Structure formats: structure tokens, C-alpha cells
Amino acid sequence: MEPKNNLTELNVSDFAMVFEDLTRIFIRLPSIEKLSFTTLSVLHTLSLKSPMRLTELTVNEQVTQSAITQLVTRLERAGLVERRPDPNDGRVVQVHITALGANVIDSRRLNRMTQLSKFSEGLTQEEKRAIASAIPALRRLVELGTDS
Q1: Which of 9, 11, 46, 101 might form a disulfide with 80, Cβ 3.0–4.6 angstroms?
Q2: How far does the chain reach from its first CA to its final CA, in angstroms?
Q3: What pLDDT digit, counting tens, does each position of 23-47 carry?
């Protein structure tokens, strides 16, 4: 499918295709911390919203309760998360990211920033400005996607 070059309107198809390609590259960039996508997704989620109940993680990560329980157990054994009782309801367990787990996410982000900096060297100043000017709209798009 050929991209449309009309710069006054958003072509959702073009945007989706480019975003998918960029996402595929982006999630594979770090050469450190070789963990599964689901594992990294859980750690990333917890780095933003820790603590969370297992049921919340199940919904957020779109996996089964059994799968999230097994994954959290593995992460706990690795020292990346810990389970603690909910201070408001002793029957409920909350999952907290540990400093080690947060470090995994931080180190991956730093590695990505380094790699993206290298890629951006191939862009023109105009292309860099276009990306920079799109950042507020992309942040807003994330907010809208998160709210739904």
C-alpha cells in the first residue's frame, strides 16, 4: 500500500503501518535483559502503576489468571517483583515492582535512547523538527488510548 503524501490530514492507515514498523523495531532494540515480551510488559506496567492486584494485571496484560500468577511467581523468584498484602484488605495481594525490576526497565529505556539517537543521525533537520512537533500529539494519543 502506497503512503499518501497529503500533509494536512492524518491518514490512519499510513500512520498504523509506520507505527507498527517502528514498534517492531523499537521492542527489539535493546540487546540487554533478554526477557519475554509479556514479562517486559508486566514490568513496564508495574513501573508505571505499582502496586497492582493480580486481577488488574490479568486484565491489563490480556492473559489468563493462571498465566499471570505463574509469571509473577517467576518474577518474584528473580527479585524483580514482590507480593505484599493489601493494607486495606488482607485477603488481597498486591504486586510491587522492586528496585531491580525498575532497573531493568530503566536500562532498556536508556539502551533504546542510545539506539534511537544513532538512527536519528540519518534524519534531516526538517525530519527531526517534524518528529519533535508530533510528540505532544502522540502523548495525547497515548492518553486517549490509556483512558479507553
Answers
A1: 101
A2: 29
A3: 888 777 766 667 888 898 999 999 9
